[in-house]
Amino acid sequence: MEYALQNRWKIEGNHLYYYGLRNKENLLKNKRKLSSKQLEVIRQLPKSLSPDEMSLLGPLLGTEVVPTNELRETPKSLEEAQFCTRCAANTYMIPGLEFNEEGECPICQTKELTQQLRSVVPLVEEIPHAKNSRFDVALFYTGGKDSTYLLYYLAKVKRLRVLALTWEIPYLSANAQESIQNAKRHFSTVEFINRYVSNADMQAIYKKLYELSGNTCACPSLAYILFYPTLVEERVPYFIAGNEPAQLIGLYYNGLAPKMAYSFSENKILQFITNIGRILTLHPPLKKGQLHTLMTMRQLAYGDSILKKWAGYKNDLIGNVVDAIHQVPSILQPLKRSIRKSSWRGHIPAFVQIDLDKISGGTYDWKSVKELIEKECGWVSLPDNTKGLHTSCQIEKCKEYSQFIRFYRCQSKLIPFSALEMALASGTKSLSKEESIQEIKTHLGFSLEEVPECKIMTQFIDKKW
Questions:
Q1: Could you tell me whether strands 238-240 and 137-140 are parallel, antiparallel, or unpaired per DSSP bridges?
Q2: What is the pTM assigned to this prediction?
């Protein structure tokens, strides 16, 4: 009998790596170390195995190494894919997706185990009125569904003094631009600030990012860089990025945030140790959310810390954005000054999150949310009003395509964000499985051929100013 290396397992150095999402018992266990003898045999596959080779590969047989007639094929279209019985996850959108005997994907298998993973920054239910600032909270506002709903909640429901911060990317969609203008008319108590980076600087950043990642998506990192000095100067006590639940838990399934990251802000021992270090160096102690702010801003300004490099932890997604932004060093100078100033004085805005599921009645239902913000905020959807994921940017489809095709070809370990988010949203009933599949077919960039919208990125990169 002839054996082969199972589809989606690839040799990388002296390891095998699985490009996919594995069942509950092996979730995130995508890496297996090989002995030199095992590696030698596997490099020769496909072939018939001798008794000694069978013994050598024993632990790998049946999973990593299988008879050739048990090799799985990667679907070439959504129509060929196997779908989860409970959500929209499928083997085309997430190649290498496994299922249990009930036909459930790993996300649905582990739903109860991960339901407490709500946010990688501290969750807050109440934001008090600030005594030393004109604003109670700042919101990074894009004109999209999620940030518009948060703007409504903070300004109209909680009656807070909100500073809405918009980075006008070159790719801002027409409906998002109209939504922003409408919001300015609907929210008389909100102060809006818009920033636009020069085309020359953005071109330099985007060129490098496209080279590294295959797309030019730098949100929200560049927005943090642009507005952090303002947050410090205005002494804004809190700021919110505006991510919905599916985006936040997707970080875990992508291996970008371990479980401990979701409880880090509640770890009093770590908080105590951190503050002892700050007091000994004559810095004021940190409050909840302030450490997350400093960690985020310092990584953008200086790259990975020595500790992270020593530990061998690497996030290519953030690393590529940081490398690209550092093509324009001058843009980082105000950020670095503000980091030093805020750290010494303790005027650090806390990076927090509001649980959108909780404030919207238990489930962040996309359809109901869109109806609400259309009425209350003048929010503008796409013409057919069927898209609910990432509604503010013209290049979302390009980002999805680049992430998808690189993962499909086993060139990147990053599972496409939108693939996880659509699976999670349909699994939690933020939208139905049928609505999710329709959105995947109609609006998202899961294609083996480059989507036409990619020209929006390359035209900007190549344009002669």
A1: parallel
A2: 0.91
- pLDDT confidence of residue 301: 96
Average model confidence (pLDDT) across the chain: 93
- What does the pLDDT average to over 256-264? 89
**What would the 3-class secondary structure string for the chain be?**
CEEEECCCEEEECCEEEECCECCHHHCCCCEEECCHHHHHHHHHCCEECCHHHHHHCHHHECCCEEEHHHCCCCCCCHHHCCECCCCCCECCCCCCECCCCCCCCHHHHCHHHHCCCCCCCCECCCCCCCCCCCCCEEEECCCCHHHHHHHHHHHHHCCCCEEEEEECCCCECHHHHHHHHHHHHHCCCCEEEEECCCHHHHHHHHHHHHHHHCCCCCCCHHHHHHHHHHHHHCCCCEEECCCCHHHHHHHHHCCCCCHHHHCHHHCHHHHHHHHHHHHHCCCCCCCCCHHHHHHHHHHHHHCCCHHHHHHCCCCHHHHHHHHHHCCCHHHHHHHHHHHHHHHHHCCCCEEEECCHHHHCCCCCCHHHHHHHHHHHHCCCCCCCCCCCCCCCECCHHHHHHHHHHHHHCCCCCCCCHHHHHHHHHHHCCCCCHHHHHHHHHHHCCCCCCCCCCHHHHHHHHHCCC
Asked if residue 128 has a cis previous peptide bond (ω within 30° of 0), the answer is no
Predicted confidence (pLDDT) at residue 4 exceeds the cutoff of 90: yes
The whole-number pLDDT of residue 385 equals: 66
* 432 and 383 Cβ atoms separated by less than 8 Å: no
| pLDDT tens sequence across 26-48 | 999 999 999 999 999 999 999 99
* Mean pLDDT, rounded, for 6-19: 97
Predicted confidence at residue 16, as pLDDT, reads 98
For domain 137-356, which CATH number applies: 3.40.50, 3.30.1400, 2.30.30, 3.40.1000? 3.40.50
- In the numeric block, the tokens 């920033």 are attached to 195
Q: Which sequence spans correspond to the domains of the chain? A: 1-72, 137-356, 381-462
What per-residue confidence (pLDDT) applies to 307? 56
Confidence (pLDDT) at 278:
86
**Is the per-residue pLDDT at 310 higher than 70?**
no
Is it the case that residue 384 has pLDDT exceeding 80?
A: no
